[in-house]
Amino acid sequence: MKYELSAVIGDAELLRGVSRTVPAARAAPLGQGLSLIPMTGALFDAVAEDGVGDEFSAVKLGRHRHGDQWIA
């Protein structure tokens, strides 16, 4: 039996911030300061919309939003 999981794994605080900004994102704590956000169909659709993908691009680059600004 095969199972494939598409997800984002990263800093728990950073991914909690993303999940507050992107309603389709649900961060699940993994321990040791890490969380996982499963890439569901709804999340893929949300990321494809204008502007929402910026949240995930920033996560990939290790940046986060503080107010209206992106910081490293």
How do the helices and strands line up, and which of them pair or pack?
Elements: E1 7-11, H1 12-21, E2 28-31, E3 34-38, H2 41-48, H3 53-60, E4 64-66, E5 69-71
Antiparallel strand pairs: 1-3, 2-3, 4-5
Strand residues, percent: 25-35%
Radius of gyration: 12 Å
Q: What structural class is derived from the secondary structure elements?
A: alpha+beta
In total, how many domains does the architecture comprise? 1
Strand order, main sheet: write it out: 1-3-2
Quaternary organisation of the protein chains: single chain
End-to-end separation in angstroms reads 41 Å
Overall geometric form: flat
Proportion of helical residues: 25-40%
Average pLDDT taken over every residue: 77
Helix and strand run: EHEEHHEE
**What's the total helix number?**
3
**Number of E strands:** 5
Low-pLDDT segments = none
Largest sheet: 3 strands, antiparallel
3D structure, described in words:
With about 70 residues, this protein is α+β, with helices and mostly antiparallel strands. It has one domain. The chain is built from 3 helices and 5 strands, in the order βαββααββ. It has helices spanning about 10-20, 40-50, 55-60, and strands spanning about 5-10, 30, 35-40, 65, 70. The strands form 2 sheets. A 3-stranded antiparallel beta sheet has the order 1-3-2, covered by helices on one side. β2 and β3 form a beta hairpin. The relative contact order is 0.19. The model has no long low-confidence stretch (mean pLDDT about 75).
